[in-house]
Write a structure and sequence with these properties.
Strand content: under 5%
Low-confidence stretches: none
Number of strands: 2
Shape: globular
Number of helices: 13
Helix content: over 70%
Largest sheet: 2 strands, parallel
Order of helices and strands: EHHEHHHHHHHHHHH
Radius of gyration: 19 Å
Oligomer: single chain
Length: about 270
């Protein structure tokens, strides 16, 4: 196997991850080499991110091994920022496991049927990470995760909107389009829940646009699915079905099973 320099591999892998080509990105990172401890930590962290995203988007694999490997490499490098990023990744991994069961059943939103102590620990972990963040952007990412927990697990949309707005305010135009797209996706959800469909559409269309600008194909498709749902909610069933059909085709090609099922349900009018 040809070895690739670490910095070049990280840049190329990032583009492949955004395109939903996780296995290819992981193979590329596995072929990378570096004598720099910080760079080795970044490579291991990127492979852990891939494992988490495969679980999130495709429902496949178990990220535990990749996370454990990254933890060991990061500890050897004594890289404080990478250690913080890994803690954020662990938080998201655990949040996603709580939200979306590994057996492929639909995500379970809200606090009903959940242990209050578990929900409080999620909230507190996110709060501790926000307070301990080594820089403003990482604090914003931790606040964003706190918003996910407030919105999707704890059933606190008002608090979630505050946190998503806080995270969005840190985003730099052109540099953080992927992060801004995520924040706007969830801010659109709070607007829809409040019955403001016009604001929800505005936020979701902007989220889709930013995901496209960042080259983040899975998120762009997920946004199109939300817009298809909203189009149906607004009464345009034919328009919703047409948009959902294209999302379903792309989701099938990329192996995004939950998104494929979501789009198929919209397409059929279910």
């Amino acid at each position: 196997m040809v070895e690739v320099k670490g910095e070049l591999a990280l840049t190329a892998a990032r583009a492949l991850i955004l395109a939903g080509q996780w296995e290819l990105a992981d193979r590329l990172l596995a072929s990378a080499h570096s004598s720099d401890q910080a760079e080795r930590a970044a490579l291991a962290l990127a492979r852990a991110q891939i494992a988490v995203e495969l679980r999130q988007w495709r429902g496949t694999g178990d990220p535990a091994s990749a996370i454990d490997t990254a933890a060991a490499v990061i500890a050897a490098a004594a890289d404080r920022e990478a250690a913080f990023d890994l803690d954020l990744l662990r938080l998201f991994r655990d949040y996603w496991a709580e939200l979306a069961p590994a057996d492929g059943t639909p995500p379970h939103f809200g606090p009903q049927g959940r242990d209050t102590a578990v929900l409080d620990e999620f909230r507190d972990r996110a709060g501790r990470l926000t307070a301990a963040a080594p820089d403003r952007r990482r604090a914003a990412r931790a606040a964003f995760y706190a918003g996910l927990i407030a919105d999707n697990l704890r059933g606190e949309p008002g608090r979630a909107e505050e946190l998503f707005t806080q995270a969005l305010a840190v985003c730099r135009a052109g540099a953080d389009d992927d992060f801004a797209s995520e924040a706007l996706r969830h801010l659109g959800g709070t607007a829809q829940a409040a019955g403001d469909l016009q604001l929800a559409r505005h936020r979701w269309e902007r989220s889709a646009e930013l995901a496209q600008q960042a080259g983040w194909l899975p998120l762009a498709l997920a946004q199109q699915a939300l817009l298809a749902e909203l189009t149906a909610e607004e009464g345009d069933k034919a328009g919703a079905s047409m948009l959902a059909r294209e999302v379903r085709r792309w989701a099938t090609a990329l192996g995004l099973r939950r998104l494929e099922s979501q789009a198929a349900a919209i397409e059929s009018g279910r």
